[in-house]
Amino acid sequence: MIEAIILISISIFLSILGMVKLSANKEKNVMEGLNFNLLYLYFLNDIIYFILFNLSFETCFSASIIIIIYKVSISIRTIKLILLGSIHSYILIQTKLRYLPAFIYCFLGGLIGVQLFNLNVFDIIIREGHFFFILKDNLLFSFILTFNILMIGIMMLTQIICSSNITFKKIRKLFILCTMHYILNKIIYLIYFIYPTFALRYLYSAFFLSFLILINYLNISSIEFFIVITNKIYDFSIFHRSGVLLFSYSFEKGEEVEDSMLKGSILIGINHILANFINKKDKLELIKMKDRDITFEFNSQLGYGLLLLSKFNNKIISKTVRSFMNRFATEFQDLLNKINNEKKIIDTSEFINTKAIMKEYFWSFLQKE
Length: 369
Hints:
Layout: H1 2-24, H2 33-55, H3 63-92, H4 100-116, E1 122-127, E2 130-135, H5 138-162, H6 169-194, H7 198-221, E3 233-240, E4 245-250, E5 255-256, H8 265-275, E6 284-288, E7 293-299, E8 304-310, H9 315-342, H10 354-362
Antiparallel strand pairs: 1-2, 3-4, 3-8, 4-5, 6-7, 7-8
């Protein structure tokens, strides 16, 4: 019982640490509430699962209660595997096939859940004062084995084929590390599930806790891992309504540029928007192209607009753009009012602090190799 308490306490500490750090970074990383809730759910799921997994060994409970605890722990773990496996495929596969793995996982997970709660699928034995479970139902064994082998195969195949879709090399390496650790964890659990021993139980527990440590490391030191995986910003520009470029930054080159990277037909559309600047209300515009999106937001009161060229627009980019616009308006309100009211020549050097503000809000999209 002592070792179970120690292992459970470590998992609770690591999970709570992860949730606290997520809360501390929520505003900084402007993630949508749903994204954070999924991460919270992951940590909470791990706490519940690991408690039930370790309690299922203890003979201080009756065998009838222990078998229920063990089955519930398997169910919770299956749900977690479906969630993480589906997210992995959804993130990396950028075609409609991204939904297929989730369908496969849910179908097999449902079969496991139905068969798991049939009577007499496990034999219970006692070794050195601990319960162990011997699976004796061949159908359940087939479902679990198929589920795990298919998930491992799909994840490895997806990782190999679609790894290039991950934007930054650093994140790509970390993503591969997490995936391989996760797959190895599954293999060890599957072996333990078939041939339960003390050694495999503690080995699996060690891998389980080390994965939590890895997630916390990413959470604390590289929170962009949870924000930017497959998306990318190419160009960032601030325009005055007169058409003057106030600031432009190339994310690909990692430096400020004197001329906007936006050329040709893109500028035609931009000039059309700028020509109707005064008559528009503040709102986010989106110009979709074949392989990238142009996000355009403007402030009609102060007479400036933001243009952002990205791989694709999403809620994270939209929310970050609006946060930047509010900060930019606060920082340069007096200067922009002076320019607009006095019709003075614009000195773009007066907007030099724009780069610092841009990096504060778009830091997770900056090159990290």
